[in-house]
Each structure stands twice: as structure tokens, then as C-alpha cells.
Amino acid sequence: MNEPAPPRQVGVYPGTFDPITNGHLDIITRAARIVHRLVIGVAVNAGKGPLFPFDERVDLVRAETERVARASGTEIVVTSFDTLLVEFARSVGATVILRGLRAVSDFDYEFQMAGMNYRLAPDVETVFLMASERHQFISSRFVKEIALLGGDITSFVPQMTRERVLARLSSRPA
User: Fold this and answer.
1) Cα 88 from chain centroid?
2) Could you read off the pLDDT tens digit of each residue along the chain, which spans 174 residues?
3) Is 102 an active-site residue?
4) Do β-strands 10-15 and 125-130 pair in parallel, antiparallel, or remain unpaired?
């Protein structure tokens, strides 16, 4: 007698990804081992004053995650959202929200968000993934600041993203 296949696990990994970093890719790679389908939700979040326009952030994330999808065999979909995270998760059939943690300071904020999300949607779990040791200090904000001040961001972002960051910054008025 054939057993029914277990349900496909769909997870959401949200962020602004301005720009996507090697830390993000570390979490995406690890998340791809946990779920069958990973939906990367690029948040509009114009309030943060992004370096990249929204559409370009989506394109960069899509391009930089193709290799992860091929290597893992996990379906990775990159899309945008401008709703509550739990509403977005439900709209794509996700039962898991994946969040990366770099430090204790991240945990306090993420713990509060997970609690609020649980109150709004108890059927959607939040799973925290600790950043790998070599990526714990990387943030998009630091990458932008380092690049703006002429520092080398090669070890913090993938090559294509590095080139785009440098091009974007060189085209900005002084």
C-alpha cells in the first residue's frame, strides 16, 4: 500500500534586500533545505530610503538566488509584497516564515514580531535561522555605508550585486 506523500512545505523569507548580501544568501541556502518551496518576499518599504528602486531589488534577488535553486532542487520564487507579512504568507500558501538572526539585538525585535504574527495568524509558524559565523555582522545598511565611503564590499555581497551597488553609487549626485 502506498503512503500518501507528505504535504509540500512552503516557506516565506521576507526582507527589503537593499541590497541582497551574502548573509541573505546564507539564510536562503539553509532555508532551501527545510522547505520544498521558498517564496522570497521583497518588501516595498519605501520608508527606508532604498538605494535600489523596488523593481531592481526584485531582479537582483531573483538573479542571485538562481544558483541556490539549482543546487538545492528547491523551488525558489521571488515576488513583491506590500501587505502584512502574515497576509502575504497566507496568499502564497506558506505555513512558515523564515527569519535570519545575526545577533542578540536581532532576537529581541524578531521575537516581538513573531509574537505579533502568531496573534494575527496562529497557523503560520516563525522559524529562526542563525546566520553562519562568517556572516553574522553583515547588514545591507553596513554594505551601503562601506561602499559609499569607498570601502571594499567584495566579501559581503555577490559579484553582480557588488557591481550594481558601485554603479548605483557612482551615478548618484555628490
Assistant:
1) 14
2) 677 666 689 999 999 999 999 999 999 999 999 999 999 999 987 666 789 998 999 999 999 999 999 999 999 999 999 999 999 999 999 999 999 998 777 888 899 999 999 999 999 999 999 988 888 888 999 999 999 999 999 999 999 999 999 999 988 766
3) yes
4) unpaired
- Domain range for residue 165? 10-170
Catalytic residue among 36, 37, 90, 102: 102
Q: Which of 128, 168, 163, 169 is nearest to 150 (CA)?
A: 169
140 a catalytic residue: yes
**Whole-number CA gyration radius for the chain:** 17
Enter the C-alpha cell of residue 107.
532576537
Answer yes or no: is 1 within a domain.
no
Q: Is residue 109 part of a domain?
A: yes
- How far the first Cα of the chain sits from its last, in Å, is 70
Asked whether residue 37 is assigned to any structural domain, the reply reads yes
Is residue 162 part of the annotated active site? The answer reads no
Name the catalytic one among 72, 99, 135, 140.
140
Report the predicted TM-score, pTM, of the whole model to 2 decimal places.
0.91
Active-site residue, from 24, 57, 135, 162:
24
